[in-house]
Amino acid sequence: MKKAYALIFSSVLIGSLFSAPAFGAIKAGSACNKAGSTSIVSGKKFICIKIGKKLVWDKGTLIPVAEPSSKPTDAPSTLPSTSTSTSISNSSASSAKTVYKAPTSFQDLSENYKGIAKAAWDAGSAQIANSAPLNVTVNVLVGPNTVPTNPNPLVAISRTISLYSGIPSPQVTHLIAFSQTDIDWAKPKYEALQDQTWRQDYSTFIQSHCPDITCNVGNTQVNNSGQVIITLGEYSDLSKEEREKFQLNRFDGELEAHEFTHGIQITTAKNFSYGNMPVWLLEGMATWSEGPVAAKNFDDYEKLRDFRVGQLFQQPNAYNFEWVNTFLNPNPNLKPGQDNRVYWSSYDRFRPYDVGSLAVEALVALKGPTTAMRMFVDVGEGLSFIEAFQKEYGISWSDACPLISKAIALEIKDGPVTK
Questions:
Q1: At a CB cut-off of 8 Å and minimum separation 6, what does 88 contact?
Q2: Which of 60-69, 110-119, 304-313 is the least confident region?
Q3: pLDDT at 274
Q4: What is the enclosing helix (H) or strand (E) of 299?
Q5: pLDDT on residue 47
Q6: Which segment, 20-29, 40-49, 168-177, is predicted with the most confidence on average?
Q7: 42 CB-contact burial (10 Å; exposed 0-12 / middle 13-18 / buried 19+)
Q8: How far is it, in rounded angstroms, from Cα 75 to Cα 108?
Q9: Per-residue burial over 182-215, b = 16 or more CB atoms within 10 Å of its CB, e = otherwise
Q10: Number of H helices, E strands in the chain
């Protein structure tokens, strides 16, 4: 199972390695609580060390953030147009690749649908490469018997912050990673951070991540202090062969990117207005974020994209224009303070992820990732989704939806790129 719902929004997990205290100004020489704990602030990783009888933060080291192999030279809004059938040499590919013209408006999305993926990749990778890290704290706790899959989640989180540069990121984020063996360890860690005890599944929340030894569920919440809590069930209790199956077609960092994107959504939309957005936008944005954060180049981005939407490619006739347009819903009735997932509850639970990611990719191709996320800021300030979309894109959602749907249907009909 690639992704699963749990309370708010969830994904397949990946683990975390470092642990750090949650509060207080972190800088070189300031006091800390536990030797060996780690925290990230302003793009640096600080480690708590013991000097004499005191525990203090070391001087910190810069977190290495790998830049994409082909760094774009222009901002998303000024990406150069390319001819429809120009062949270029790609050092990471075994053969020449064709560069397609990037769409420039909703009106020419379907005409230039073959250029959507590359335009979105260019926009996302440029944003990551050109954005400075923010001053945020990330605290990661790992169960004593848990072996994390990704050895450096902080890089992925740093890249996700840069991907949505210009949007406020959560100031404090806690990651709790655990396998089935460490459920009893994780439960008090979660309950110490999550003070919203009114949640319906509060007492069984951690156990729900690990219905069996697979333990393959992730979740993002926020507490009353506005701190993000990411809980990641790890599958390190599985055999080596079984773990390798889970790692097929995956890249380190994609799943931290997914969950941290939800963290940005929740905090910018001010939590309870979070549900005023279409489910495909919530999960589609988090799913699309995995690509530019985890992929090292456009070839990797395409591989991850093909894997992510593979179920759609298997039934291109089923996912035609009419189906996609109805799913995205040009006239959604989203009511404040209510669970607006009801409209999409009759669909396969994976469709908000894969179809949603293609819709978000089209939005990013046109106006970059920050504009897409800015809709959550608008909703947090009191606008509806319909109003936020009109504000950010200069076109009504009812007019834009069929144009996006037509392009997506064409992409699905073409099938995977990495055949």
A1: 96, 97, 99
A2: 60-69
A3: 67
A4: helix 298-308
A5: 76
A6: 168-177
A7: middle
A8: 20
A9: bbebbbebbeebbeeeeeeeeeebbebbbeeebb
A10: 12, 11
